[in-house]
Design goal:
Length: 110
């Protein structure tokens, strides 16, 4: 992967990119296909990947989330390191992000 965002058709760690879903302060999230199944792929960005503290935090998030099993929690399928960037694949859920629903007043934070 080169610096910047992936494009549709690119392959990252065996996942074929369909489209960008969102960008955060430390990661990019894509809709991808792997082994015929749609998944969400979260990739720690280049800058964050240079920090050992942020890398450890990302791995801990992936490992902890991978142990959770609940209908209201998105499941983590796998995680790893590809060309120096950490990633995790998750179950893809069609719909809007929670941030968008909060901004539109459709749900409230407790």
């Amino acid at each position: 992967m080169t610096a910047g965002r992936l494009s549709p058709g690119d392959v990252f760690a065996g996942h074929q990119v369909e489209r960008l879903l969102g960008v955060g302060g430390m990661s990019e999230v894509y809709l991808v296909v792997r082994e015929g199944r749609c998944e969400t792929l979260k990739i720690l960005n280049h800058e964050a990947s240079e920090s050992e503290r942020l890398r450890a935090k990302f791995v801990m998030e992936a490992e902890l989330a991978g142990r959770l099993n609940h209908p209201n929690i998105v499941s983590v399928h796998a995680h790893g390191d590809f060309e120096g960037q950490l990633w995790m694949s998750m179950h893809y859920v069609e719909g809007y992000s929670a941030a968008r629903l909060v901004a539109r007043g459709q749900i409230a934070l407790a």
